[in-house]
UniProtKB/TrEMBL annotation:
This is Acetyl-coenzyme A synthetase. The keyword Nucleotide-binding applies. One of its GO terms (molecular function) is ATP binding. Keywords: ATP-binding, Ligase, Nucleotide-binding. It comes from Coemansia reversa (strain ATCC 12441 / NRRL 1564). GO terms for cellular component: cytosol. It comes from the Eukaryota. Residues 39-95 form the Acetyl-coenzyme A synthetase N-terminal domain. Pfam families: ACAS_N, AMP-binding, AMP-binding_C. Its EC number is 6.2.1.1.
Length: 664
């Protein structure tokens, strides 16, 4: 394999054309797109004639209660974009009723519970009844269109039922990842102004119970506006706290309701959900997604990127608490009437072949996971994979962080048996669905590149300083998108100014993704990682400011600075530098207390892998911490610190470098 260097990083240029099995299937339908020429023609139409493209696609993909007469309004410059603005639809009707009325026995969800061997199935007919009964429960709480409901649940089908029940009534859901701490949950419940929380008694992961309801109770001590907590019985542990009349058991409440509830048609632009994500400040942003454009994006990308056909069984291992779970466990698959696997466990329980047994047992045809999981499973050796029959797989996907060529090659060869398409999909919470991605059957892959834009997405690489668009190939800069697309976020809940300032104002006329990127000599896109204060740990986005403020919350901490350190397994790991207040002694007990503080305030996903107590941090003369220096030092690039003229006390550098090399 030959290599070339862009941006000081090694980029693979091995090219893998689509396997003939995908482009010319025997006994199966042809892929939706089976050549680059077809991709290019459709892409060209989506850019040059968006009205006819999106009218056709939106009518083919979704069922409209009232047809739209206009495809889109507004611009990135003004931040007022809207899609299918006069169209009306109901998301739950599109995701459930359409398929339940045609084929009620079709399987909507395969639920792989934490313990192996306990899988169950939910058909579209059953799903309709469950969604309707729950929607009637929510109505009985007095909830009406436009109100927000918080969902804090394990990976069980009822989490999807809760989302769809909200959608049926035009309620806005906000799913909070059930690994977040009580204070993170409280912050989101308050910001979203939720009056109702849907949860479970406990979760189970890798055989270990999680105190889900107890965490909710702790959170709600600071959320006086929450009136009802609906509790699904997952484990049945009798000692779980229950405070009637605020708390209501799910099974009792649904038993009292009729299993039909008419869907409430909403505007395509009415919000479907808020999803909190980390930004460059300490306060998470409630990203707002709409009913029409978002659902279209989720369904359309899944159909083309994973080449979904009737009878396929799609498995995305992401948690419902992240955008990947929203778009590719729930909304995308159901918008297509496909079968989606809900995986409650972890990839190494009871051993490292759990994913692959899952593929074998449920005859999974498309599988979607994160590079971190791929890297971790690769370490366990090929045997765990090769002992399982993975012959049903056609497309295997990766999401959330750059996939290094070694992991890509292992995924392709060992998991995919060199007979599958590997799709490295680039997107974000804010984009709603894939924006840069290969199409199986069409795109020749280059390991580590997300390849080309999806339909309707017009990309640009900008000079970070001048904002000038870099033309031609073989360029590097920051990634931007030049025109609105249907599934893009419309605002941040309660803070449109922050939306404009974060995404649209930095480079007027463009959506700024926050990532560095290159376009190579063949026009392939390569994502270079975040250019802001966001770090990506195992495909989870963390704000350095959020971790810093959790640390500052501890009485011993004077100052903190958090940066991402390169990590073989998780891509990046959290590295925290802390100075102490007078009177506190630097020792290991205090260090573990500080790490615990972050876990308690945010959740285990924010655990600093390294915490270094220092006497001083590198600062400018005006007292601003120079994080760039810390980033370079933890990356082992202390010899490339660049311009140090602004550093107020250069004498601290040697101590810092020594401490880092001792700690990492
Ligand atoms: O930095 C990019 C990285 O993940 C960020 C988005 O994170 P989040 O909103 O949590 O969504 C994750 C799942 C969609 C991006 O700004 N990222 C995502 N996918 C890729 C990626 N980096 C490189 N390659 C990818 N395929």
């Amino acid at each position: 394999m030959t290599t070339t260097t862009i941006d000081e990083k090694v980029t693979s240029v091995a090219v893998y054309p689509p396997h003939p099995r995908l482009a010319n299937p025997e006994g199966r339908e042809k892929p939706w797109v089976s050549s680059m020429a077809e991709y290019k023609a459709l892409y060209k139409e989506s850019i040059e004639d968006p009205t006819s493209f999106w009218t056709r696609i939106a009518n083919e993909t979704l069922s409209w209660d009232r047809p739209f007469s206009q495809v889109s309004l507004g611009s990135l410059k003004n931040g007022d974009m809207a899609w299918f603005p006069d169209g009306r639809l109901n998301v739950a009707y599109n995701c459930v009723d359409r398929w339940a009325s045609k084929d009620p026995n079709r399987v909507a969800f395969v639920y792989e519970a934490d313990e192996p061997g306990q899988a169950t199935k939910v058909t579209y007919g059953e799903l309709l009844a469950q969604v309707c009964s729950l929607a009637n429960v929510l109505s009985s709480f007095g909830l009406r269109k436009g109100e927000t409901v918080a969902i804090y649940m394990p990976m069980i089908p009822e989490a999807a039922v809760a989302m769809l029940a909200c959608a049926r009534l035009g309620l806005v859901h906000t799913v909070v990842f059930a690994g977040f701490s009580s204070s993170s949950l409280a912050e989101r419940v308050i910001d979203a102004r939720a009056r109702v929380v849907i949860t479970a008694d406990e979760g189970l992961r890798g055989g270990r119970p999680i105190r889900t309801k107890a965490i909710v109770d702790e959170a709600l001590k600071t959320c006086p506006d929450v009136e009802k907590v609906l509790v699904f019985r997952r484990t049945g542990n009798e000692s779980v706290p229950f405070n009637a009349p605020r708390d209501v058991w799910w099974h009792e409440a649904v038993a009292a309701q009729r299993p039909y509830c008419p869907p409430v048609p909403v505007s395509a632009e009415d919000p479907l959900f808020l999803l909190y994500t980390s930004g460059s400040t300490g306060k998470p942003k409630g990203v707002v997604h709409t009913s029409g454009g978002y659902l279209l994006g989720a369904g359309l990308t899944l159909k083309y990127v994973f080449d979904i056909h009737d009878g396929d069984v799609f498995c995305c291992t992401a948690d419902i608490g992240w955008i990947t779970g929203h778009s590719y466990v729930v909304y995308g698959p159901l918008a297509l009437g496909a079968t989606s696997v809900i995986f409650e466990s972890v990839p190494t329980y009871p051993d490292a072949s759990r994913y692959w047994r899952l593929v074998e047992e449920h005859k999974i045809t498309q599988f979607y996971t994160a590079p971190t999981a791929i890297r971790a499973l690769r370490r366990h050796g090929d045997d765990f994979v090769t002992r399982c029959d993975l012959s049903t797989l056609r497309v295997i996907g990766s999401v959330g962080e750059p996939i290094n060529p070694e992991a890509w090659t292992w995924y392709n060869e060992v998991v995919g048996g060199s007979r599958c398409a590997v799709v490295d999909t680039y997107w974000q919470t804010e984009t709603g669905s894939h924006v840069i991605t290969p199409l199986p059957g069409a795109t020749p892959a280059k390991p580590g590149s997300a390849t080309f834009p999806f339909f309707g997405v017009e990309l640009a690489i900008l000079d970070p300083t001048t904002g000038v668009e870099l033309q031609g190939d073989d360029v590097s800069g920051v990634l931007a998108i030049k025109r609105p697309w249907p599934s893009m976020a419309r605002t941040i809940a309660g803070d449109h100014k922050r939306f404009l300032d974060t995404y649209l104002n930095p480079y007027p006329g463009y959506y700024f993704a926050g990532d560095g990127a290159s376009r190579d000599a063949d026009g392939y896109y390569w994502i270079r990682g975040r250019v802001d204060d966001v770090i990506n740990v195992s495909g989870h986005r963390m704000s350095t400011a959020e971790v810093e403020s959790a640390l500052i919350g501890h009485k011993a901490v004077a100052e903190s600075a958090v940066v991402g350190a390169p990590d073989e397994l998780s891509g990046q790991a959290i590295c925290a530098f802390v100075t102490l207040k007078d009177g506190f002694e630097a020792n290991d007990v205090l260090k573990s207390e500080l790490v615990k503080e972050v876990r308690t305030r945010i959740g285990p996903i924010a655990t600093p892998k390294t915490l270094i107590l220092v006497d001083d941090l590198p600062k400018t003369r005006s007292g601003k911490i120079i994080r760039r220096i810390l980033r370079k030092v933890v990356a082992g690039e202390a010899d490339q610190l660049g311009d140090l003229s602004t550093l107020s006390d250069p004498s601290i550098l040697d101590v810092l470098i020594n401490k880092v090399s001792a700690a990492l």
